[in-house]
Design brief:
Largest sheet: 9 strands, mixed
Structural class: alpha+beta
CATH topology of the largest domain: Alpha-Beta Plaits
Number of domains: 2
CATH superfamily of the largest domain: Nucleotide cyclase, GGDEF domain
Distance between the termini: 70 Å
Strand content: 25-35%
Shape: globular
Helix content: 25-40%
CATH architecture of the largest domain: 2-Layer Sandwich
Order of helices and strands: EEHEEHHEEHEEHEHEE
């Protein structure tokens, strides 16, 4: 192997790549921190292609819905991969279809989870209807189909939905050729964390969502019974939240 002053050419090339990588990251971070921001108010839910890669962002008030399979790790570890894939696909299709049906836009899939944003009229009520219909669809469509096709597994799909609303900032993040929108705001973080709560009550919403719900999304149409139970969320400074085990017929 050729050597230069006792150092291999491979080592020199490797050192050069490390230096170039450090310079590239340093320059980009400096650019991000120093550049001025350009903000506009979004009239529709932003898409990646509509936001530049420099310090440009779109502001909006949005309701965020996260739908997540409960115990997906156990599903992947204890069942065939193709069975888990069928569960994932069935769940994500149903959740996405209902989000779209109620005026929401899909902006992220992450493994067994889908994120929907609602900004049209009555976004909180629309998001809650989508969540309750998802609960009904899992109990009356997905699980019966799974039981019919695979009776020996005994598997029953469980899930959670978290919903919150707040002002949001959408920015494009990542590297050229591999980037996506990042959503900065309380609703995205809180809605995602609500998914960690027990799935025996699959729909969880914050007081911000509950306070502006239409009556039809708060009380049962037939007998006026409340469809929500008030709770305190200790992990989030005793935030007032609401849970529901009600479904809405699709």
């Amino acid at each position: 192997m050729a050597h230069v002053f006792g150092t291999s050419l491979a080592a020199i090339n490797c050192t050069g790549l490390v230096i170039a990588l450090k310079e590239d990251i340093t320059n980009r971070v400096s650019q991000i921190i120093q550049d001025k921001w350009d903000f506009v108010d979004a009239q529709v839910v932003p898409e990646t292609k509509n936001i530049g890669e420099r310090n440009y962002g779109k502001r909006l008030k949005a309701t965020v819905l996260y739908a997540d399979i409960d115990s997906s790790t156990g599903l992947v570890e204890n069942y065939n991969d193709w069975f888990a894939a069928e569960v994932y696909k069935s769940f994500l299709y149903t959740a996405a279809r209902l989000i779209r049906y109620h005026g929401g836009e899909i902006r992220s899939y992450d493994g067994d989870r889908v994120m929907g944003l609602f900004i049209a009229e009555t976004p909180n009520t629309n998001a809650v209807k989508a969540a309750m219909k998802l609960k009904w669809a899992i109990a009356n469509i997905i699980n019966p189909k799974l039981k019919e096709r695979y009776p020996e597994t005994g598997y029953m799909l469980k899930h959670t939905v978290g919903i919150d609303c707040s002002n949001m900032l959408a920015v494009r993040a990542g590297i050229r050729g591999s980037n996506d929108l990042s959503w900065i705001g309380t609703a995205a973080n809180v809605a995602a964390k609500l998914n960690s709560l027990p799935s025996d009550y699959p729909t969880w919403i914050t007081h911000r969502v509950y306070d502006v719900l239409a009556k039809e999304a708060k009380f049962n149409f037939n007998d006026g019974r409340p469809m929500w139970e008030k709770r305190r969320w200790k992990a989030m400074d005793d935030m007032t939240i609401y849970r529901s085990n009600w479904g809405w017929v699709v």
